Amino acid sequence: MVERSKKPSAIPVSPLAPTPQVSISDDNSRVIATLPSGERVEILLYGATVVSWKSANGKENLFVSEAAHLDGSKPVRGGIPVVFPLFGPPTADHATSKLPQHGFARSTRWEYLGKTSSESSTESPNGGDSSVKLDFGLSDGMLPDEVRSAWNHKFSLTYSVTLSTGELETTLVARNVDSTTWEFKVLFHTYLKIDDISNITITGLENTRYIDKVKNGDEVAAAQESITFSGETDRVYKQIEDATITILEGGEKRFEVVRDTLQDAVVWNPWSEKAKGMADFEPKDGYKNMVCVEAGTVNQWLKLEGGDTWEGGQTIKAL
Q1: Is the dihedral of CA 237, 244, 289, 133 positive or negative?
Q2: What is the DSSP letter of 105?
Q3: First to last CA, the chain
Q4: Distance between CA atoms of 220 and 248, rounded to whole angstroms?
Q5: Does the CA dihedral 60-64-69-74 come out positive or negative?
Q6: CA-based Rg of the chain, rounded to a whole angstrom?
Q7: How far apart are CA 210 and CA 277, in angstroms?
Q8: 8 A C-beta contact, residue 84 and residue 173
Q9: Active site residue 294
Q10: For residues 89 and 252, what is the distance between their CA atoms, to the nearest angstrom?
Q11: pLDDT of residue 185
Q12: Residues forming a β-bridge with 292
């Protein structure tokens, strides 16, 4: 055999860039996604409830009660329950009057539709895809008979949970596939995990009027000051001008909640006495380690005509 004086050099093979890993639990009850950088999110198919969101360093960003029902028997106390088409207890003079409190989205099993991963505009420090979007679906045909008879409208919901570096985005798309108009309210009931409620300050709502549900639903003028906590707090802030709500702990930024097409926000902490009265809230002093900052449109009904689509969402940044 004749030896060539110059052999062609081998073509280098680049290693495959890491990609987000998505799995479904063995009992088919939840979807888990992990980014190459270490961020992780876990969504229960019951209610499409986000029950865990961890930063790259393993720190949990969401509070879930130790007594929360994760078996599909009851809405989850914690995480990010989806409130639709009703906020709060039903009122007798509305089409949602026969529905349970906060509607049916948080207490119905959703369908996992699939994933989409993408790279950000900036280079990921770990290479590969820097975000993953998980889609979930719910339609009127998936509701139990008793719920469908209580709210007899045709609809389709697509709920997207997008995990990226330092952020979690939740978006809801509602489609009216009926021929008649129906009304709804919507809210992401986000329980943020904190170290000590007494060290929490919330900014971005100083210029906003609110309904104080602790004080018999009285409407209160804009306080012109940041929010701090020394007792039970349950407020519905209306028609917020600033897009971003900032949660500080000990003077340092801990979270930012950025609203998209959502007009209102609820700020809630049950404090000690109300926590004691909730059977699924544990530990009873867990109120010290959570604060709800809930983006939504709940102060007035949204109308969706037949064939129309509505979309709204939030982005939570862990700082």
Answers
A1: positive
A2: G
A3: 66
A4: 23
A5: negative
A6: 22
A7: 25
A8: no
A9: yes
A10: 36
A11: 98
A12: 191, 268
Nearest-angstrom CA–CA distance, 99 and 102: 8
> 9 pLDDT band (50/70/90 cuts)?
low
Omega of the bond leading into 8 within 30 degrees of 0 (cis): no
CB-based burial label for 107 (10 Å; 0-12, 13-18, 19+)? buried
| pLDDT at residue number 118 | 83
Residue 189 appears among annotated catalytic residues: yes
Full-model pTM: 0.93
**What DSSP character marks residue 287?**
G
Active-site pick, 39, 42, 189, 256? 189
Contact 226, 201 (CB under 8 A): yes
The CA-CA-CA angle for residues 177, 115, 56, to 5°, reads: 130
DSSP category for residue 275: H
Q: Which of 39, 249, 256, 294 is catalytic?
A: 294
Residue type, 42: E
